[in-house]
């Protein structure tokens, strides 16, 4: 235990045991003797080479930035209770969360699943949205500052780390932020912004699923060089989260994902394919579907005639009507079906083996009929263009634009004359 052990701060916060330490200070388990509750206390360690003026600036900034997060209300943000100055340095009194960090989890068990990372990302994005709305930028989002308390994800050190810095502190040569998780624009000396926090979120999620941050190299200078000059390698284990991570790791902050777009992609990654919608119908080339049907029929010993029918109307007229059906009791092959119009395709069954496949061509196939007609039945179609396959051409009669068509040979394709549409309205 360090020499601070047993110290009582502001006559109420007793340091009980050391929980961990890093470059910016030490975190203690503490006890609030006034409210009789356990707390976490962060002892901020100032660099020894700071001038007295820099120390004053640092203290003021610590107090100012501690007050702001204390006003935030989010289950994904650690709650700040108090800030006190004791022994010439600031101490931050916070909610005690006895849980491992994301960094510890990955070091102990390896990269996490894309689904776990998406859950963590959603809560971290929520925390950032709350903070950014209040004008607070975290500046040091990384796996060691993300605690995993069961299903709860908690972002710690919100704007309190020394790396938050200022111009006067930067002059001392201390790097602002963690190089492996800092945004390129911040590494280049620009001011940290909400967009730079989103980059850090992307780098954190990348490390969660890949086991290492995207630009981590053997030392700080190599890491910063890679950050400035290399492209982000596509994560291999991100699954549905890939577009979220790569969007957050866009080097140009103006093209980086916004809160709203990142949130939308995260929700889709968590929910998977949207329910309530039918999957899109497969699309086929017209020639392919006709050839496929003809080949299947030929393999079964059945003749098929494919009719590619173009029927442009003579005048604009109403929209194409749905296929209609009627039955004829005459069954007389010589007699034309009743109601055969000049702009219609009509099919009449001569025998019980008149099986038809009728569809409307386009980007996708719209099937109007796939049936075997009863002898004497007729089908009329008024669409401007149709594809027709007759499984037994000799069992059906076909009229196009009022003219009866020859049956043709099995397995052949026929093109029939197309009536030109009249101009004008």
UniProtKB/TrEMBL annotation:
Residues 254-281, 313-338, 404-425 are annotated as: Disordered. It is an enzyme of class 2 (transferase). SMART domains: S_TKc. Its EC number is 2.7.11.1. Keywords: ATP-binding, Kinase, Membrane, Nucleotide-binding, Serine/threonine-protein kinase, Transferase, Transmembrane, Transmembrane helix. ATP binds at residue 42. Pfam families: Pkinase. It comes from the Bacteria. Residues 13-270 form the Protein kinase domain. The keyword Transferase applies. GO terms for molecular function: ATP binding; protein serine/threonine kinase activity. Residues 323-338 have a biased composition (Low complexity). PANTHER family: SERINE/THREONINE-PROTEIN KINASE NEK, SERINE_THREONINE-PROTEIN KINASE NEK2. This is non-specific serine/threonine protein kinase.
